[in-house]
Amino acid sequence: MKIFNRSIIAVLLLLTLQIRAQDGSPSPYSFYGLGDTSFRGTTENLAMGGIRIYADSIHYNINNPATLSHLKFVNFNLGLANNFINMSDQSKSQWVSSHNMSYFSLGFPIGKKIGVGLGLVPVNSSGFQIFEKDELGTYTFKGDGGNSRLFLAGAYQVTKELSLGFEYQYYFGFLDHENYWIPADLYTYTKENSDVDFSGNSFKFSSFYHYSLNKQHYFNISADYSMSAPLKAHYKSHTLLITPTPTGNEHVEILTREDKDATIYFPSNFNAGFGYGKQNQWFIGMEYNLQTMQNFRNPFFDPSYVQYQNASSFRIGGLYTPQYNSITKYWKRITYKAGAYYKNTGMLLYDTPITDFGITFGLSLPAIKGISNLNFGVELGQRGKITNRLVKEQYVNLHIGLSLNDRWFIKRKIN
């Protein structure tokens, strides 16, 4: 118990530094919208194609708050990701990488029918750098920032089979862009800087239905809906005329300045899934997701060649545990996972839809003693294609998740 509490305190102290020190997504697609999608689920979920239909008594399924009512132990969850992307266009290719915290959460039961959870996830990120140099000069375009979400969730088990969940969500973030071209034959050059800070609230509602067909087999049905989040945004930009001085410094003159407020509507999201399994041994599920990107607009960065349509995705995945209670053979207690997904991101560049598909697999390694575990997940996928001034990305995402469990709120009989 003491080790468990100390681990949580240490992580909380580090989070305030970590969230600002995140590596933004190096993908050029992170320029659009509010950045590239960072969080799609916990390591346990991602290893199964990202499905959120599975629930048990020791893991907090962040994507589906209704499953909190199934928790029997306090669960502390921390995820880290290493992303490697090979970006290719018609003339060259390049490997880039980023390393980030994926999520942090704490879930715990209150009585037999209520579960409560809270946490922090980076929702979107941007960290691209584009350099082009020729005999005429050097062009540089940089982006940094992202969008994070703090959340507080609760669930209540209405009947033996049905649970309902609710989540309050607070979004906050920033985006910074720096754009300049230095001509080879000129002494001075101009630089455009722009940044936007935004924040807002939203709510999520979810349901989870678990029905036992017999003592071994069961099926799950889930649905959740996240409301559109109106983000209050403040935008500042200025154009600078920069002249290097003989002493090595720079003389900076402000040519233009802009300062304004607006509202960015983060899209609503609906997800529905179905799964079937055998208790403590195997499970397979599939899900469909719809996000209302069609009405999304960023009033500060809105190129004419970018359009949005409703985004959708289909995911399938499952798990298998040879023998969860094996005493003599540890490998039989390991849970093996796999899955796949296909996404229409909802973004059209030069009238070309940007799609994303991949396969996943992973392991859940139980502790030698106790019910905590260490989770690993791998994603192999591709987004975009080499056509019409677009970039094809082939990526390998490595995920690691730490899931610690303990019992709280138990009255001790002997001190």
Q: Could you explain how this protein is built, in words?
A:
There is one protein chain. The protein is mainly beta and 415 residues long. It has one domain (2-406): Porin, CATH 2.40.160. 5% of the residues lie in helices and 61% in strands. The protein has two helices and 19 strands. The protein has a 14-stranded antiparallel barrel with strand order 2-3-4-6-7-8-9-12-13-15-16-17-18-19. Strand 16 and strand 17 form a beta hairpin. The longest helix is centred in the first third of the chain and has 17 residues, at 2-18.
Descriptive keywords:
415 residues; mainly beta; Porin; elongated
The main sheet orders its strands as: 2-3-4-6-7-8-9-12-13-15-16-17-18-19
The CATH H-level superfamily is: Outer membrane protein transport protein (OMPP1/FadL/TodX)
Count of separate structural domains: 1
Derived from helix and strand composition plus strand pairing, the structural class reads mainly beta
Name of the level-1 CATH class: Mainly Beta
Strand content: over 45%
Largest sheet: 14 strands, antiparallel, barrel
Quantity of strands, as a count: 19
**End-to-end span in angstroms?**
14 Å
Q: Which regions have little confidence, pLDDT < 50, spanning 5+ residues? A: 1-21
**CATH fold label:** Porin
Q: What does the radius of gyration come to?
A: 24 Å
| Residues in helices, as a percent range | under 10%
What is the CATH architecture descriptor? Beta Barrel
Number of helices: 2
**Oligomer kind:** single chain
Task: Report the order of strands and helices.
Answer: HEHEEEEEEEEEEEEEEEEEE
Which geometry do the CA atoms define?
Answer: elongated
Mean of residue pLDDT? 87
